[in-house]
Amino acid sequence: MIIDGLSLIYPNGVKAIDKMSLNISQGIFGLLGPNGAGKSSLMKTLVGLQKPSSGQVLFNNVDIIRDPDHIKRTLGYLPQEFGVLPKANAFQLLEHLAILKGIKDKSFRKLHINYLLREVNLDQHASREVYTFSGGMRQRFGLAQALLGNPQFIVVDEPTAGLDPEERNRINGILSKIGQQRIVLLSTHLVEDVYQLCAEMAILHSGKLKITGSPKELIKALEGKIWARPAASDEAEIPDFSSVMIRKNFIGGESWITVFSENRPDGFQLQKPTLEDFYFCSIKNLI
Ligand SMILES: Nc1ncnc2c1ncn2[C@@H]1O[C@H](COP(=O)(O)OP(=O)(O)O)[C@@H](O)[C@H]1O
Ligand SMILES: [Mg+2]
Q1: Closest protein CA for atom 14 of ligand 1
Q2: Is-annotated flag, keyword Kinase (predicted)?
């Protein structure tokens, strides 16, 4: 998928996407950004649910803004929020969605749906009503519906938000498997998910693309520049102008200050940079 100079201004004047250009070509591509960065807006635009104000999106050399039906037919999408029909069980709901997606052959449809339910570990719950599912089960159901028709491009919007660690791992396991044969565009505000899953990533902030690259390469650029020391709990800012505080967090109840600096600030120890450090440096315009 080629995204070229894409902008989206909502009728209320919010510029949710600001001149974005990006190529997404293989495996799992991670879109990382804080709430309000524009991740969902971008995804809805890419799947043809809303028209951008300007710019172009090409998928299989088809301009999806001119021909949104093309992408709707060839792509799977798990929205950040989705409603389900009450009283429909998992199998019935997938069947309904499969028919909408144009999967006409009844016996193939049944095989395909049962296969997908197994893929997301919901085969034991095929006849349970989806609205009774836990958050994690619901997201796994959402992944199954995104895989209907075996699309080669899948867009998943914050699939692990609000899930417990075990369910989050399960979703990530399924995504990693899906990403072996397809292109997956994954949005999240969880740095760890991107680190675990994505070979390529982009950081999005205030509708703008801050940086793209591989998580490993991006982290490398910070080597020798991340420093930390324990802090007093009421210490909010460090008074040293040679370094910039990127975060203050707690480790085992102890407060730590982490800074970005070319040279070692007094009293600080060198840290192995993490993707989280990179994320904060990027959001704070340090790199
Ligand atoms: N339908 C809409 N109308 C107006 N503003 C919107 C709409 N949807 C999102 N926004 C605004 O666009 C910005 C980006 O939102 P969103 O794409 O949901 O970000 P994210 O998914 O990264 O949290 C926010 O400022 C949000 O308030
Ligand atoms: Mg969102």
Answers
A1: 38
A2: no
Q: Does the beta carbon of 14 sit less than 6 angstroms from any atom of ligand 1? A: yes
For residue 274, the SS3 value is: coil
Question: Residues 140, 258: one domain?
Answer: no
Is any ligand 1 atom within 6 A of the Cβ of residue 189? no
Domain that holds residue 248: 224-271
Bridge pairing between strands 62-63 and 208-213: unpaired
> How far does the centroid of ligand 2 lie from the alpha carbon of residue 35, in Å?
6
Cβ atoms 187, 158 nearer than 8 A: yes
For the chain, the first-to-last Cα distance in angstroms comes to 27
If asked whether residues 16 and 103 sit together in one domain, one would say: yes
Instruction: Examine the domain organization and report whether 24 and 61 are in the same domain.
Output: yes
Question: pLDDT 10s digit of each residue in the chain, 287 long?
Answer: 999 999 999 999 999 999 999 999 889 999 999 999 999 999 999 998 999 999 999 998 999 888 888 887 789 999 999 888 888 999 999 999 999 999 999 999 999 999 999 999 999 999 999 999 999 999 999 999 999 999 999 999 999 999 999 999 999 999 999 999 999 999 999 999 999 999 999 999 999 999 999 999 999 999 999 999 998 767 766 656 667 888 888 888 888 999 999 999 989 999 999 999 999 999 988 88
